[in-house]
Amino acid sequence: MCEVTQQIRAQDQQNPVAELAIGRLKKADPLRLTVVLPVNVTFSKAPSFSADGKPPEPLDLGWRKCLPGGCIADALLTDDVLRRWKTQANAERITWTDAAGRDLAIGLSFRGLSQALDALSKEL
Questions:
Q1: What are phi and psi of 117, to 5 degrees?
Q2: For domain 2-123, which architecture applies?
Q3: Residue 32, Cβ neighbours under 10 Å: how many?
Q4: By the number of CB atoms within 10 A of the CB, which of 23, 43, 83, 103 ranks highest?
């Protein structure tokens, strides 16, 4: 399996706050997004992506499991979402709710995503 990944770290921390991966097992499979967030999450509300205060992306992200290193949510990526992300010029945010009910958000960038996905399509 080959995938495009991004780790998001706080300035003074070695371990990532979040990890994102886009990939597929076989070339014929659709692309999937996998998100790993801290273990202190609320399962009743899935994480979401947004940019510039716009409504969240229409992703069907769902929590799958929690491991000692983080909680995992994933979704199939539609062509429409991939198209928007490939051309996204502004910073994105991923938002989730912690176990205390607080909404948390961190910034991420899709700069270079188009080139990375082009390379990924040649690997499989």
A1: -70, -35
A2: Sandwich (2.60)
A3: 15
A4: 23
For residues 101 and 119, what is the distance between their CA atoms, to the nearest angstrom?
A: 39
Other Cβ atoms closer than 10 A to 41: 20
What's the CA gap between 57 and 49, in Å, rounded? 5
pLDDT in tens, 60-111: 899 999 999 899 999 999 888 888 888 887 778 899 999 999 999 988 888 8
- Name the residue among 66, 40, 61, 36 with its Cα closest to residue 50: 61
Tell me the residue ranges of DSSP E strands in the chain.
2-9, 16-24, 32-37, 48-51, 62-67, 70-76, 92-97, 103-108
Q: CA Rg, the chain, in Å?
A: 14
**How is the chain split into domains, by residue range?**
2-123
